[in-house]
Amino acid sequence: MDNAQIMAAIKYHRENLGYTSSEVADAIGYDVSKYSRLENNKQPILGSEMVSIAQLFNMTLDELIHIPTRKR
Q1: How many domains does the chain have?
Q2: Residue 55 falls within a domain, yes or no?
Q3: Which of 11, 16, 31, 34 has its CA 20 to 30 A from that of 48?
């Protein structure tokens, strides 16, 4: 799994949980523009940042980095 896939999953969860970019940026101690660079895959996300986001979303790291698949 590469950084782009991880950030796509984080963005998916952020939007589905109703968090703004600003709220997530605050949770990891970034300003919105720096968080935007993460979400747009302009810089790699650190493990500590993923842990903070997972805590904010009340998810495990495994849940955070995967987009759920639809059940048929």
Answers
A1: 1
A2: yes
A3: 16
